[in-house]
Amino acid sequence: MTMDSPPSQPMVLTLILALLLVLYLALRRRAGGGKNRSYPPVAGTVLHQLLNFGRLMEYHTELAHRYRTFRMLTPTCSYIYTVEPANVEYILKTNFANYGKGSKVHEVGEDLLGDGIFNVDGAKWRHQRKVASHEFSARVLRDYSTGVFRDTAAELAGIVAAAAAAAAGEKLDMQDLLMRSTLDSIFTVGFGVRLGVLSGSSKEGAAFAKAFDHASEQVLHRFLDPFWKAKRFLNFSLEAAMKCSVRTINDFVYAVVDRKIEQMGRDQQEFAKKEDILSRFLMERESDPGCFDNKYLRDIILNFVIAGRDTTAGTLSWFLYVLCRNQHIQDRVAEEVRAATSGDGDLGAPELVACLTDDAISKMHYLHAALTETLRLYPAVPIDVKCCFSDDTLPDGYAVNKGDMVHYQPYQMGRMQFLWGADAEEFRPERWLDDGGVFVPESPFKFTAFQAGPRVCLGKEFAYRQMKIFAAVLLYLFRFEMWDANATVGYRAMLTLKMDGPLYVRASLRR
After folding, report:
1. Which pLDDT value is given to residue 82?
2. Handedness of CA 180, 181, 182, 187 (dihedral sign)
3. Mean pLDDT, contiguous 10-residue spans, the chain (511 residues)
4. What distances in angstroms separate CA 418 from CA 56, 84, 197, 370, 421, one per listed residue?
5. What is residue 274's predicted lDDT score, i.e. its pLDDT?
């Protein structure tokens, strides 16, 4: 732009935002705080986060290396970020009652997550937590889900085998295949619906998955965009796309719920035997018709989807990516799976999945460590936020005001040398094993991939079992390498840590 040319609209908007935020910062400093209250250092404003949105995790990692706790200013409150385990334990456990989702978080995520378990506090959270806790602890769900995971892993292995058998090896986008696999799995386990997304037989399922990704990305963007409500009202820009995505999601989910209700109406006794989670919720509603409506069921479904599809598929994608770059680790995992299943024999996919019993899986300590190391560096949920309900002081001495948004940072915590040592950014599964090769867990307030305290992830063991079955099948049967040895993979700024593009690999038969 020359000196004579008019500034563009985005530039004008940026300048206006900058001036407003500078004024706000000056007023905030002038207002000060209560006597003897020490506030976290100011590392920037929401404008800085918007300007760094494409590299938000790296930007926050740079800041976390300078300040273990810091704040970013917004027009309405402070966004406080911390990598201090004592603070994490305090907000997730010790003073749990003072930190929750709050109205702002609920409002930002309501279009997508509604009143689902990840977006509510109080009675609605307790109700869903109670029902989900019962289901996840039931042996019937464990056995049912294990069967689904085995079947889906075998189907995925067939697709990979066909590509591996091609003359020069066929290019595979493993992130896409894993996302489709876990979507099939979670809909079967959660809702008794076989989508057929992995086989490519469901265009509706594929459209749902795409819309869900777009909506998830926009929810994160809303936290950093002070004008998102105005854009939604005007049906403008990303908010217009958000509305279309939510419409696609709702049409799909309500159709699933309607089909299940129709099944229940045809034969309630037979329906009562169904093992999927949605059927259980519908049976509970049958005994207490006023407990929740179809909208509530829709919200429950979508929260299970983000928990059971995005997280496990994302972790497995990063897992394969780092193992392609660490072939010795990939080979060691394959050897452990072989030792726990077939010994010196060679098995095909159907025989292999039959050998993946709870006993066999429990012996795979190195695989468990490698998956956990993946979650340390690439946590499925890279950042989590709680609203402070009343003025407080964190264990590190920093004050928090009522209405401030307090974030703990799993992604950044995994890269802190004061937590993990000088090799914090190195992928090293051995850090999780004792001298005998047995997996040793860390404090959940240091390794925060599954939250902790009353909101600790109910599906932790469920997720590990799914990931172990998929990883065991793939690495027993195939060796993976990057299609382009020099390719690097970034992430997409969403609620979950998804790769920003395809994960192209070449697969070859291991035996």
Report:
1. 98
2. positive
3. 43 56 51 68 90 90 97 91 98 96 89 88 85 76 89 95 84 94 87 82 81 86 85 90 94 87 74 71 74 82 80 94 96 96 85 94 97 97 94 97 96 97 97 96 96 91 94 96 90 83 93 70
4. 22, 10, 43, 21, 6
5. 67
Nearest CA to 321 out of 197, 162, 490, 441 is that of: 490
**Residue pair 337/327 in contact by the 8 Å Cβ criterion:** no
Exposure class string for 455-482: b at 16+ Cβ within 10 A, else e: bebbbeebbbbbbbbbbbbbbbbbbbbb
d(CA 380, CA 464): 12
| Residue 169: count of CB within 10 angstroms of its CB | 15
Amino acid at 466: Q
d(CA 318, CA 370): 11
DSSP state of 439: B
Q: What is the DSSP letter of 437?
A: S
- For residue 337, what are its two tokens? 């799976």
CA separation for the pair 411, 440 (Å, rounded)? 21
Amino acid at 224: L
Q: Other CB atoms closer than 10 Å to residue 139's CB: what's the count?
A: 7
Tokens encoding 362: 């429990």
Q: Does the domain at residues 33-509 carry the CATH identifier 3.30.450.20?
A: no
* pLDDT at residue number 258: 86
C-alpha–C-alpha distance, residues 100 and 385, integer Å: 8
Is the CB of residue 341 less than 8 Å from the CB of residue 476?
yes
Burial of 287 (0-12, 13-18, 19+ CB in 10 A): exposed
- With residues binned 3-state (H G I as helix, E B as strand, rest as coil), the percentages for the chain, rounded to 5, are 60, 10, 30
- What pLDDT sits at residue 221? 83
CB count within 10 Å of CB 75 equals 12
Amino acid at residue number 495:
L
Give CA separation, 278 vs 186, 275, 282, 283, in Å: 11, 9, 6, 9
CB 467 within 8 A of CB 312: yes
* CA atoms within 13 A of residue 264's CA, in its CB half-sphere: 20
pLDDT at position 31, please? 46
Compute how many other C-beta atoms are within 10 angstroms of the C-beta atom of residue 142: 16
Q: Rounded to a whole number, what is the distance in angstroms from the first to the last CA of the chain?
A: 61
Q: φ, ψ for residue 105 (rounded to 5)?
A: -65, -40
> What are the residue boundaries of the structural domains of the chain, listed by start?
33-509
Do residues 68 and 60 lie in contact, with contact meaning Cβ atoms separated by under 8 Å?
Answer: no
Predicted pLDDT of residue 29:
44
